[in-house]
Fold this sequence. Notes:
The protein is mainly beta.
Amino acid sequence: MNVKPNTGNAKPVENLLSQVVRTKDMPWQKMRFPGCEMKTLLFDPKSGLATMLMRMEPGAVLPDHEHVLIEQTYVLEGSLADKEGPDAGIEVGPGEFVWRPAGSRHVAWSPKGGMFIAMFQIPNKFFEKDGRVVDASGKEWDPAWSHLLPA
Length: 151
């Protein structure tokens, strides 16, 4: 199932007025990863910039992916964990912030379930078992986003 962020009400970034997003009035969108949902708070298709409110059920997993540019996550509820090496792992909880540098790659999961604000400069690359590299919606990454990378 491909999921496209609900950006129908998005306004162009050129609009210089403050943009209010009433998150409580927005429906949760199921992602293609079981137990993961999101609400798109900001999306600029010209740059790939995105801010998402994400919710994960206990044990839900975001599979093998790379942060193409810096990714930032603030944990509102629950926890978010990853394993960055054979013996190293981190888990962040409510009120904690984690950022990952460009090029970092990992699998993330939520042991307790959780809600997070995630900020991306460009969509992540997800590495499929069949060798394809796609974005979170399942679109082939290179044709959709590579043109936005700095030269």
